[in-house]
Amino acid sequence: MNTPAVSEHRLLRAGEHEAPDPTENSLREAFALLRPRLRPPFSLRTSTPSDYHQLVLAIVYGALTAPPRTARTHLVHLHAVVTDGYDLFTRTVLRLSLESYPRLLQPARAQLLWVISELIGADAVGVDRLVVSLLRWVRIGDFSQPNLWLAEGLLRVLCVRWDWLLEEPSVLTSALFLYLRLLADHYRLASDQKVEALKELEIDFCVRVVRQHFDFCMGMGRDLVRLLQDVAFIPEFRDVWKDLLFEPRVFGVPGYSDIWQLYRTRTPVQYFLLGITPEMETRMRFLFTHVKLGNQRRYQEWFARKFLCRPECETVVVDLVRFICCAHHPPNEILRSNIIPRWAVIGWLLKSCRKNYFAANAKLALFYDWLFFDDKVDSIMNIEPAILLMLHSVPEYVGFTQELMEFLFLLIDHYDVDRKDLIAQGVLKSFDMVVRKGVVQSLDLLSTCSLISPLLKERFNVFIHGSKPEAVRDLYLSSDVKTLGGPKKSASCEKTGFSHVKGLVDHLRATMTQAGSNNLQTLGRLLVTFAKLDKQAIDKELGGNSSTI
Fold it and tell me: Where are the chain's structural domains?
């Protein structure tokens, strides 16, 4: 059997003016040097460790660049001579995956998936890290054919190697994390034949893992709930979501009886790396290590052109925010320097979201750890960016501060109504911790700033201090409409007030449409007026025209 000439097969795509890749060069040189030894019959003896090292590098190159039939011959050779549990071979392929996957030519990518499957079958040392490295190259928000091909091909390998996967819980849960995240985006795509088969694979895989191996899934922590919530609208997940909320014992995990146990479990850092590619991680960490505040614009523009250039790429903002909050914690010397802080980059990312759905999910990603914060298990660094973003946005971007405060209160009231009190306690602990640990001097700016809506400041003071003026007491006791009437009034007052309800609602709709950036203040004035049910004040708010309602 003739081994193809080295010049006929390349490993990496190279630009016209790019320097040769040192890893590819070392592999190609080893292959050229040992090519006569790579043809059957093989010599099974290696005289020195250096000789073994060169032989393995040559086999890596042959396995990834040769046609499939010849590549199988190279793997047979490897099985015959291996002395280190495939450690060197796996580490070499891992380095290629982490550093060079985007430049791998398509034939080499196809061979890489096959090599990984073969290494799993051989129970190779370190193959778990190799699988996870490839999971990271499946890009969120990228619906191009090469990306969908990688997502589907890797998932098929994992399904074929199911028994091995069950012996590697960290790989199993990493795959679950990624494919739940992908599924939320893929299912919202218009019907497309190239995505349909992948969606079915993702659904079957994720439901199977959650239903049959929930004991492994619990180690994923609270972000598992966030991901499952995002796919709960998919028919196959509706029962899973209902059981998670109301019948947790059906998952058969001893001691697991309530979703709050997942909420209280902090998600390990390694899962947040799955939402962004290694290249994204490198660029982000460079930004937080070397770029000074005020000089970040050109770096952010480059990042946006590279990774956020298409509308569908907005979805990855959620994963970037979770990575920044939970996986990148700068050391004290960086925190004390003039390097761009995390809150500034998160503010830029949130502002880059043009669709409300993505913006809401990104804000949830920012505040998620606030809802369940426990200083015994959670890091203050996870909640630091949100409070600093709210405070530093005043006064220039006070509307953004109000937007974030309003969203946080919406989460408290509506994220999980049955556990609203526990969530409120988590948020209170977060506010308390950022002051006690000196992240901020005080919260006075949020409670006294004249630029912030009076209604929102009042809600904040009510939440932090627990006291409220009588006029709005019942407005804040509950989000239910039944409490808006406040203390019991006389029959005449009740009749007069409620006779204007329909008109107030109609006027509110029209006013909110016209109010633009002042909509929050307008809403505040009208809601307080409505809470008081004061005819004279209604006349004043509506310009003396309430008689026409």
Answer: 20-125, 141-267, 276-469
